[in-house]
Design goal:
The protein has 549 residues and is of the alpha/beta class. The N and C termini lie far apart (63 Å).
Length: 549
């Protein structure tokens, strides 16, 4: 019975998130009782009446709902492109790219699901080594064969786990729904209120007893249960998410025989191919990208939904991330597209454990650095130490040259902060790293835009990265003579330092100082960043008539 009750709590947890923290907690400051980024304080005391320049922020993600009520006024428009005429008016290689580009679409549709990178690596070697006789392989083949076995073991383990979890969720769903049905039958049409539930006698019906206890526990947790049907719908909805997730792992993510790339129609082996894709910047599932875009720049003070961090931003949507792992070729081209079309900041809320074309990604990152563009990347949600484990893409260049930088100085890697204080200050899922994660930002229970004029709480380093991108956009907007590297330095130096002992993400017992979880040892602070920016001389050459810091 405890397991069944726990399952019900999981299905209802999303409903209680909003009650645990204010919807705008990430804008707040310590004076308000939350470790937000002090953006409200910055607007009230530093930016009121101050002029700014429009900054373009590229969102490389799953797509953005560009017609959302809280985003439609801040969507980037390519003024050199005539919408819908089927021509490349600005000669940039992309036809009708009015609001951005979609690198995972083609003439006949869009990629939705895709495999994970490890699955692609396994599938690429499977035909060579699945039936291989190890004793007959050459030295070079043995090296490759060893990698094949590693990839195969990981994929098969994940498939086995997904199969087990899928079975358990289906079984739990059946048990929970059966128990709720028993309560419905016993109520006989009476309202779903505590007095009526208390009156039910489940001593001779274990199924009814389970259902009764589930409903009473939910009520005790403060859940508003309007009716049996509403409870059923919520349980169905929450179980559907889990069941679809694990079924998707079997059908797509860890299926080496699945290949949606034919939809795109590109020459996948050519990492530097341009012009492939289509102009559908929303795609079939824009939940993640729309949420990220809202955190950065949802219209402020318009009386709708929520406020973004930055107030003078245009959002460029570059669809690159499917339900599965993004592909390095697309990431590289997305960065280049963003740079070439005027983005000053690029948000990248995605990542994976394997990188297969780092040369192409590195070239794009260097191009962004040359063009003075700041790259903001989510550190990942595996509760791992990024100083030890890989999270691609990252700021370290694969090929090192004499007298050249080994890392991208225009790159920021972001961990996720919890709304709780004390030992739970770091989000329990967040990746961290004293050397490889730069700074933390709010990433738990972040209320922001979702498709179809909706709003929702989501969590992840995917939400923390756009908070930082938004703060960076504020700085670049009000102090445009600052370079990308200067903006990073300012955000790092002005961060709120935290020294309390916290649970290490991924651990239930081990603790360390929060200062050990990142390079800066702190949390991004918009108010302090803007104060420091005002006192910093910009190194960027400005055109005559431009605003200067």
């Amino acid at each position: 019975m405890k397991n069944i009750l726990f399952t019900l709590f999981l299905t209802l947890i999303a409903l209680s998130l909003s009650a645990q923290a204010p919807q705008d907690w990430f804008h707040m400051s310590s004076e308000d009782g939350y470790n937000g980024v002090s953006s409200n304080k910055a607007y009230e005391s530093l930016l009121n009446g101050k002029n700014s320049q429009t900054v373009v922020v590229a969102i490389i993600d799953s797509g953005v709902d560009i017609e959302h009520e809280d985003l439609k006024d801040v969507i980037w428009v390519n003024k050199d492109e005539i919408a819908g005429n089927g021509k490349d008016d600005d000669n940039n290689g992309y036809i009708d790219d009015v609001h951005g580009w979609n690198f995972i679409g083609g003439a006949n549709g869009n990629v939705n699901h895709d495999t994970y990178e490890v699955t692609r690596l396994y599938g690429k070697l499977k035909y060579k080594y699945d039936q291989a006789d190890e004793s007959k392989l050459s030295k070079d083949q043995l090296k490759e064969y060893k990698l094949f076995k590693k990839y195969k073991a990981e994929v098969e383990e994940k498939r086995e786990n997904a199969t087990t979890r899928l079975g358990k969720y289906n079984e739990s769903k059946s048990t929970v729904m059966s128990a709720i049905n028993a309560v419905e039958k016993a109520l006989g049409g009476k309202p779903l209120i505590k007095e009526n539930i208390d009156s039910l006698d489940g001593t001779s019906d274990p199924n009814l007893m389970v259902g009764k206890n589930m409903v009473l526990e939910a009520m005790a947790e403060g859940q508003e249960l309007e009716s049996i049907n509403s409870l059923k719908e919520e349980v169905e909805s929450q179980f559907k998410g889990a069941i679809d997730h694990f079924q998707g792992q079997l059908d797509y993510a860890y299926n080496p025989d699945f290949n949606p790339r034919t939809i795109v129609g590109d020459n996948y082996e050519d990492s530097y191919e341009k012009g492939y894709g289509n102009n559908d910047v929303e795609g079939p599932d824009a939940l993640h990208g729309t949420h990220v875009a809202g955190i950065v720049a949802a219209s402020r003070n318009n009386g709708l939904g929520m406020d973004g961090v930055a107030d003078n931003v245009e959002i460029m949507s570059i669809r690159t991330v499917p339900n599965g792992d993004e592909r390095d070729k697309d990431v590289a081209n997305a960065i280049i597209y963003a740079v070439d079309n005027g983005a000053s900041i690029i948000n990248m809320s995605f990542g994976k454990g394997y990188g297969t074309d780092k040369k192409a990604v590195d070239a794009a990152v260097k191009y962004a650095a040359k063009k003075d563009v700041l790259l903001v990347h989510a550190a990942g949600n595996a509760g791992q130490d990024n100083d030890i484990a890989d999270n691609f893409p990252h700021d370290k260049y694969a090929k090192k040259k004499l007298f050249c930088s080994k890392v991208a100085k225009n790159w920021m890697e972001i961990g996720a902060l919890n709304y709780n204080k004390g030992e739970n200050l770091a989000a329990p899922f967040s990746n961290y790293g004293k050397n490889n994660v730069d700074i933390f930002a709010p990433g738990m229970a972040i209320y922001a835009t979702v498709p179809d004029d909706g709003y929702q709480n989501l969590q992840g380093t995917s939400m923390a990265a756009p908070v930082v991108a938004g703060v960076a956009a504020l700085v670049r907007s009000y102090y445009p003579s600052l370079t990308a590297v200067q903006v990073k330095e300012i955000l790092m130096a002005s961060s709120t330092k935290m020294t309390e002992q916290v649970l290490i993400p991924g651990s239930k017992e081990d603790k360390t100082s929060f200062s050990n979880l990142s390079v800066s040892g702190g949390v991004v602070n918009a108010y302090e960043a803007l104060k420091l920016a005002a006192a910093t001389k910009g190194k960027k050459k400005m055109k005559k008539g431009s605003n200067r810091a």
